[in-house]
Amino acid sequence: MTDKLEQLVEIAQAMVAPGKGILAIDESSGTIKKRFDGVGVECTEANRLDYRSMMLTTEGLGQFISGAILFDETIRQKMPDGTPLVKLMEQAGILPGIKVDTGAKPLAGFEGEKVTEGLDGLRERLAEYAELGAKFAKWRAVITIGDDIPSRACIDANAHALARYAALCQEAGIVPIVEPEVLMDGDHDLDTSFDVTEATLKALFTQLYEQNVMLEGTVLKASMVISGSDADDRADVDEVAQATVDCLLNAVPAATAGIVFLSGGQGDVEATTHLDAMNKIGDLPWPLSFSYGRALQQACLKTWAADPKGNRAEAQQVLLHRARMNGMAALGEWDQDDERG
Ligand code: 13P
User: Fold this and answer.
1) What pTM value is reported for the model?
2) Which positions are annotated as active-site residues?
């Protein structure tokens, strides 16, 4: 293996090191505005820096968080004293990652479906991000379940783009997180979620193979196999855990460096419970961990927003607690009682 490939494998393994997961704070400008609006904070560049740097400077966070996914603005930001945020992350032992897709756009000819854009000029952008300190990247595709969707065309177009992105990342010495999110929105049942997730993952790994992507230097960010959020009779924790593990075993090659989950609208503790239940099943070929956005930040954001200056330390403790709970869940060692302490 060349030095470059070895380095990719090393980074990928560090991202899913035992008991550690990834903090997703790569909300696009529109999404972070929505989150700030929800807690009554003005969405200015200064406030975004204040909030995100508060999280990243949490003492001890690196014990449970291997890396954080940043947005383009954040990877360039400096603290008021001139220290780049990325430097603070390096000191805290948290790998900087970067969201590089430019969003999911309507897929022409397929009503209600989306394809993720951002391949044009990606080689040059990745080179710049590598200069800025990025060790890994993220690209999110969105698959929607509904009447007669997803279509084969949507699954294949997204898988193709994900693989092209992943190949460009590895060429740049950056580990790709490939994220084909099957949305929880809708009233579909667990079996439908299973079938769509399986088809999506099989298409993705076919494309990754065809486009020469090295799986040992790739991390999959998956959605769990779960009932739709509006389904009548939603599957319980053990059913979700077993269906997700079965689906992944069917579709994800053992060579893949690791799998991290998105939270996708699940509650904080719900996302932890599901991850823990999967790891309690055990005997899996890859580490199963977390890359939560909302399920890590929700409570922290609320605490911080109530008094951004006064509650800084308290908000950091709230984040650290959630990170620690998920770190335990990544080992299958979490218990509901741990939530109290
Ligand atoms: P959620 O955990 O809030 O779904 O966000 C994770 C993410 O990065 C989606 O791309």
Assistant:
1) 0.98
2) 179, 221
